[in-house]
Amino acid sequence: MSKEAAQSPKSGKTIDQTADRTAIVAARLKKLYKNSVYPVEKKYRYDYFFESPLLSDVEFDAKPQVLLVGQYSVGKTSFIRYLLGRDFPGQRIGPEPTTDRFTVLLNGPEERTIPGNALSVHPDLPFRGLERFGVSFLSRLEGSQLPSSVLKSITLIDTPGILSGEKQRTNRGYDFTKVVSWFAEKADLIILLFDAHKLDISDELKGAIDVLKGHEDKIRCILNKADQIDRQQLMRVYGALLWSLGKTMTSPEVARVYVGSFWQQPLQHMDNADLFEMEEKDLMKDLAVLPRQSAVRKINELVKRIRKVKTLAYIIGYLKSQMPALMGKEKKQKKLIADLPTVFRTIMKKYDLAPGDFPEIASFSNKLHETKFAEFNTLSEKQIADLDRVLNEDIPKLMEELPSEKDSPDIIRSK
Amino acid sequence: MSKEAAQSPKSGKTIDQTADRTAIVAARLKKLYKNSVYPVEKKYRYDYFFESPLLSDVEFDAKPQVLLVGQYSVGKTSFIRYLLGRDFPGQRIGPEPTTDRFTVLLNGPEERTIPGNALSVHPDLPFRGLERFGVSFLSRLEGSQLPSSVLKSITLIDTPGILSGEKQRTNRGYDFTKVVSWFAEKADLIILLFDAHKLDISDELKGAIDVLKGHEDKIRCILNKADQIDRQQLMRVYGALLWSLGKTMTSPEVARVYVGSFWQQPLQHMDNADLFEMEEKDLMKDLAVLPRQSAVRKINELVKRIRKVKTLAYIIGYLKSQMPALMGKEKKQKKLIADLPTVFRTIMKKYDLAPGDFPEIASFSNKLHETKFAEFNTLSEKQIADLDRVLNEDIPKLMEELPSEKDSPDIIRSK
Ligand SMILES: Nc1ncnc2c1ncn2[C@@H]1O[C@H](COP(=O)(O)OP(=O)(O)OP(=O)(O)O)[C@@H](O)[C@H]1O
Ligand SMILES: Nc1ncnc2c1ncn2[C@@H]1O[C@H](COP(=O)(O)OP(=O)(O)OP(=O)(O)O)[C@@H](O)[C@H]1O
Ligand SMILES: [Mg+2]
Ligand SMILES: [Mg+2]
Q1: ipTM value for the complex
Q2: CA-nearest residue, atom 16 of ligand 1
Q3: What are phi and psi of B89, to 5 degrees?
Q4: Which of B246, B257, B275 sits opposite A247 (nearest CB)?
Q5: pTM higher than 0.90
Q6: What does the alpha-carbon distance between residue B237 and residue A239 come to, in Å, rounded to a whole number?
Q7: CA B247 to chain CA mean position, Å
Q8: Do B240 and A254 touch (CB under 8 A)?
Q9: Whose CA is nearest to atom 11 of ligand 2?
Q10: Confidence class of residue A127 from pLDDT cuts 50, 70 and 90?
Q11: In sequence order, which residues have a C-beta less than 8 Å from that of residue A205 and are 6 or more positions away?
Q12: Is the dihedral of CA A350, A351, A356, A361 positive or negative?
């Protein structure tokens, strides 16, 4: 497999430069949120009415996550080592089931491991919530920090190999399936690895796919160690894998399976060398676009959120404005809640809002019952104007600053 | 693709020799049936009690049938031409939907086409029953006769290309799906062809698989024209095909898909030449073993049938023997039918028979009600001895005369 530099030959951009630019955009986005959106959300209680917590720093800073899943010994840890171009703290590679913990690979100035406890409470890292899986899981969770250009762009998550059904449940002190499911939910990409040399579909595949249910669109497969067998065998194995994936996965699009041998050793059989090289290029490209994709997704989500925040501000401001000055507040409030569909229509027309940005009527009116309209904040035209400026000027500018699709590096691997 | 002779290099046996030996075995089997089994079946009304017609010559003489199915222009007719090593009467090959009829390729001394009417009433050919599809179908049925070593071993059936759902129903004057289904039922092997160059899974595949429902075990696939695309594209197309097959086919075993370019032209891209050659060898071997497989199947079916015939003879003979000489025949017959389970057990013990060879009790006793036991034939020890001789001596000898597995030619294609 050819060793390419972390330098993208086409654009001349290194992954470092792209990572830095993407990080700058994320930081700006965070600032926009904090200055112009967050205050409005607080003022009109967005978190209460839309049942969506206010955003914290980590949601802007977190890197796209790539989760590696597969039966033991398929080469998950070796693949990570290959991507990084070097060993990492706590790394264990070997023929037996070796990786015995969930390992989060993070960029950082010095090499060290971070215990699971610390990782799961770290305010700057998106792993809060893992405490729910108990202490015996936390002792099987580890951060591995090292200086790495790759990890400046993405966070890799290594996992212990999936065991056959029986052992899965009995040999671990925590609910493996639920933990993988938690990571899959947060992941931007899930790489499911298979060993071409000893593909054992029955147990392995079904277990893995079950665990990843609902996240099929994020799954990419690797048929690893494909250089260990001849070309006709490879066709058989590859076919058997896709046949089974077709039977198991519910999505209509064909799963993408990258065929190759993803470690630092030279190929054993050379007869597929050029195929493997093309496959690797495709996979590297899929990884390299993740930071940009993730930034775009964050921006889109914020845009959607701001439109909802704006709508909420109009609704709350309107309800407040309808309150009588002295008497009959309660009665008026009841009437307004009963008339909520009419209220929504009035506001929608008056401010030219989209129906999709309004909260769901039934649950919203339930929530209104628990409040006192008289205590609501009045509409602040200035804040609305602020939100509009973010939507119409700041964010489009930010999009322009994002490294373009073709500026994304072709490869995310370190030599 | 390498051009190999019809001569099997390993065994030195030509397909002609093997075909001849297999034909001799079939003829002997037919003689055994006619002399020793058929008279007993008639005597004890096997056809009535087991609801299975007496066997005719054609059931022994018919060659294994290979049915070719696939969307138009995938290369079905070209594949047949390639197997035969020559053009055949009525052959039409071209880019538009060309083959407009079901064509049965048969061995015969002179080249000629046989009209559908004649084919469907021919007593020596296994195509009686096709009249049911009407005259407009029969005008779309044709025999193509030519002298060919390949056709001495197998009968090939070319079909018009499967069209997309709509056209399928409206453009033909007969029920295409039911006709293909009829042929699939009779076929020993169904070859489903796909065009690697323009694989259109959605319509094509589902239509074809629907038509072949219930015969999944006979299906082999060909991914044809695979030399028109590069290796990575081929992996994608092959993967997409297996993914879809996995979703569509109900069988648990992976469908066998032969990848290659099955016509007389040289390969366009050479980079998969060795893979294609191996694939073709496998396919040719799968075809070459058909005559032996079919003969073995016929023998096994006859063995099963003889065991049932023997059991029936014992049952009928026993019931007859229980009839009183003069009076109370009807009453005794009623009692015997009511006691059928005991009767079966008695006979099973007395003659050491297998439970699986007995008829199903409920439907058998219904049938007995329609008969008069007094008119039954008595048991003929000589005929039973005859059946035993066939089972224990003649058929084992016949099995030995069958060309052995490894004597089967490696290839069934003509140069
Ligand atoms: N591309 C490859 N080709 C051949 N052998 C490989 C390849 N990648 C890894 N291996 C070997 O396979 C074995 C398992 O590798 P590794 O420990 O990376 O797998 P793993 O999936 O992380 O296993 P576990 O689930 O036990 O952690 C090791 O001996 C490794 O050297
Ligand atoms: N292996 C091959 N590689 C490239 N082209 C091929 C191959 N086999 C056949 N063709 C071309 O494809 C076209 C269709 O071939 P052919 O008529 O044999 O297909 P068919 O499946 O019988 O079509 P129809 O269903 O219309 O009868 C022809 O132009 C033929 O020359
Ligand atoms: Mg590992
Ligand atoms: Mg044709």
Answers
A1: 0.82
A2: A75
A3: -55, 130
A4: B246
A5: no
A6: 10
A7: 26
A8: yes
A9: B75
A10: very high
A11: A194, A241, A244, A245, A248
A12: negative
